[in-house]
Amino acid sequence: MNAIDQTTNEVLRLAAEHFKVQRDQLSPDDDFFKKLGINSLQALDLLTRIEQHFQIELPDYELQGVTDFRTLAQRIQSRL
Amino acid sequence: MNSFQGDTLSWQLLDGTIELALDRAPCNEIGRSMLADLEKFIAALPSLQREAHALVIHSTRKEGFCAGADLRETYRVAQQLPKGERLAALRDFLERIHHVMNTLDEAPLTTIAAVHGVTFGGGFELALACDLIVADKMTRFCFPELRLGLIPGFGGIPRLKRDLGNAVVRDLLLTGRSINAIKAQSVGLVSQVTAEGDALRVARSTAAQLKKFDRNTAVAAKKFIKPIPHDELRKEIDIFCDLFMRPAVDAGLRKFVESTDAQPYLP
């Protein structure tokens, strides 16, 4: 598994845990706002989880327009 | 009045600690009703502080401590008023909220903001008026005002400048990005980071510890180390009012209020 796939899997796991859904219900190309039914404030919770888990800082303006897990993982990867 | 239940907040005095709980859906937005209740609290403070050594401010809202000024109300009120009256109404609101913040800032108590989740704009400024910030690890701090063509207007910049290095102030202000509790602690903004859901418990425990110390000494120490930047606070009101009257702000507020964007809080 390459690094981006690994990061994507970690993000999917974190999202599933945080929003209490089954991991296998989430896919890399899902629109997380729609799939999880979350608003921007809840998305910030996910961002905090991600920053803590990967021990990175990810400015939220880098997430402007990002709605799917795969692109989110790419943004994370660029900070690792 | 040792306890009070208002429309947007409540307080109680318990064992020398005043607990002020913000409770207005969705996330304690500071509009006219919240301001009126905060003014009631400020009016009651001289009596409360005779029996208290500490004040803990926290939120009962799951979403966070406070999402800042009520922008929807701000926009609605501005639209209802003739242009000539907008500035006077805005200045009146700012003068009143500054009075609240300044009174909290210099209160002869040790004040603790127990924060979690969204601590944005005016909510961040309320926390900055306190002596200590205890943050749940899921807290996010942000000054998103620049995206509306504004600067923070409730005393945020002078207080942040007082407490932190100017580079951090510029980063937060000019990028409008949010930072988490760990980062906020690393730059000196937050005094303690707690597990999720534990900020209030830790703030209470800290308040209990403070009770062991001589109150007069604590008051003298606070007065010595926490000057109120009055001149800069006045200047902030003037700059905010100048900026607010520009068409760009009107457009920015309208965009926010009417937005169906999934990320309206993200700069």
What would the keywords be for this entry?
heterodimer; A: 80 residues; mainly alpha; Non-ribosomal Peptide Synthetase Peptidyl Carrier Protein, Chain A; globular; B: 267 residues; alpha/beta; 2-enoyl-CoA Hydratase, Chain A, domain 1
How does this model look, in words?
The complex is a heterodimer of chains A (80) and B (267). The longest helix of chain A is centred in the first third of the chain and has 17 residues, at 3-19. Chain A contains four helices and no strands. Chain A has one domain: Orthogonal Bundle (Non-ribosomal Peptide Synthetase Peptidyl Carrier Protein, Chain A). Chain A has helices at 3-19, 32-36, 40-54, 69-77. Chain A is mostly helical. Chain B is α/β, with parallel strands linked by helices. Chain B has one domain (3-200, 209-258): Alpha-Beta Complex (2-enoyl-CoA Hydratase, Chain A, domain 1), CATH 3.90.226. Chain B is built from eleven helices and eleven strands. Chain B has a seven-stranded mixed beta sheet with strand order 1-2-3-4-6-8-11, sandwiched between helices. A four-stranded mixed beta sheet of chain B has the order 5-7-9-10. In chain B, helix 1 packs parallel to helix 3, helix 3 packs antiparallel against helix 10 and helix 4 packs across helix 5 (156-163). The model of chain B has no long low-confidence stretch (mean pLDDT 93). The A-B interface holds A 33, 39-41, 43-45, 47-48, 51-52, 57, 59-61, 63-64, 67 and B 27, 63-64, 67, 117-118, 137-140, 142, 175-180, 182-183, 261-267.
Tally of DSSP helical segments of chain B: 11
Largest interface by Cβ-Cβ < 8 Å? A-B, 18 and 26 residues
- Major sheet strand order of chain B: 1-2-3-4-6-8-11
In N-to-C order, the SSE pattern of chain B is EEEHEEHHEEHEEHHEHEHHHH
Average residue-wise pLDDT of chain A: 92
Could you list the spans of chain A in which at least 5 consecutive residues all have pLDDT below 50?
A: none
Strand content of chain A: under 5%
Q: Please identify the structural class of chain A as seen in this structure.
A: mainly alpha
Looking at the overall shape, the CATH architecture of chain B is Alpha-Beta Complex
Bin the helical content of chain A: 55-70%
CATH superfamily of chain A: ACP-like
Q: What is Rg of chain B?
A: 18 Å
